[in-house]
Amino acid sequence: MYSMIGSISNVSKLILIAISVFALSCKKELPPKDPEFTYHSISLSSGSATCFHFINNAEGFVGTSDGKIKHTTDSGTTWSSFYLPWYISASIQDIHFMSATKGFIVSDFLHTYKNSTWDINQLNSDQGTLNTIKFIDDSHGILYGTSSDQLYITSDGGDSWIKIKSPFSDITEISFDKEFVVMLGEDGYLASSKDYGASWKVSAASGLNSISGVDVVNKNFIIATSYNTVYSTNSNLSSFYTEQRDIYLGTPRFCNLDDNTIFETHVQYGNMEINYSKNGGKYWQSITIQNGNYISEFQKVENEIYALSQYGILRGKR
């Protein structure tokens, strides 16, 4: 009697397992949700936003054309002025904060903020003006201007900077994915570095026409753009897929939310338009966003995308 009941119980368990396996095999994986963007005004009394950096999904900083910094701790919903000494009044070219107590801005010089104090680092006092600072992680960063004399790297979080010889006489832009870094130089030539910018290798296959920008979406998807052409390649920079557009692109910006979801913004008939792909750039869809004109850059922050426009922040999430 007991053995018969035990046998029936075991058969029932097997049937339930079989049904569960069948149900899982029939279940379709849901496609990624379409991203939704929310616009937040920075409420500037003068000037316009020139650069931004978010530490996390809540806290971020914006530099302005009239030498001010705005600070938010609620994802851009409200903004307050962040302390700057009187002698910093030039346009903020770039900004990067690692925490609320440590950060950098590039204006007339490189300025370092640490423990409520600003210091000037006159790295390039006789070479011209720096314009960009990028940190690959909390230790490794790149600082540069437009000329070959203005390229520096750090491996200690910006406490010290080492001058590096650039492979090009003019530096247009630098983009990266982790330690893999790509530089766009004069005449559309590209160079890559696999050691955080310490050494560079020029691609023999580049020399693309009228290139205005480069974005390393990831190591396998690197995009260079001209006024109406998009060139894509991988980390070898050896061959390029060319996509001709029938519109003026300006300088498109690209950013990835994950391995498959990629965002692009470009000029469309005088306005900025955001496109996105959910399959790694194979197919693109358009997003219409009110107040989203003139987006200058994207930043991936944890599981969200932030975009900077002239007077506000766009926060995108799924």
Compact description:
The chain is mainly beta and 318 residues long. 8% of the residues lie in helices and 43% in strands.
Q: Topology of this structure?
A:
Blueprint: H1 2-26, E1 36-41, E2 49-54, E3 60-64, E4 69-72, E5 80-82, E6 94-99, E7 102-106, E8 110-114, E9 117-121, E10 130-135, E11 141-145, E12 151-154, E13 162-163, E14 171-177, E15 180-185, E16 190-193, E17 201-202, E18 213-218, E19 221-225, E20 229-233, E21 241-244, E22 253-256, E23 262-268, E24 271-277, E25 285-287, E26 297-301, E27 304-308, E28 312-317
Antiparallel strand pairs: 1-28, 2-3, 3-4, 4-5, 6-7, 7-8, 8-9, 10-11, 11-12, 12-13, 14-15, 15-16, 16-17, 18-19, 19-20, 20-21, 22-23, 23-24, 24-25, 26-27, 27-28
From the spread of the alpha carbons, the general shape counts as globular
- What is the ordering of alpha helices and beta strands? HEEEEEEEEEEEEEEEEEEEEEEEEEEEE
Residues in β-strands, percent: 35-45%
If you consult CATH, what is the topology?
Answer: Methylamine Dehydrogenase, Chain H
Note the main sheet: 4 strands, antiparallel
Over all CA atoms, what is the radius of gyration?
24 Å
Give the % helix.
under 10%
Count of helical regions = 1
Oligomer: single chain
Number of domains: 1
* The CATH class: Mainly Beta
Task: Report the uncertain regions.
Answer: 21-30
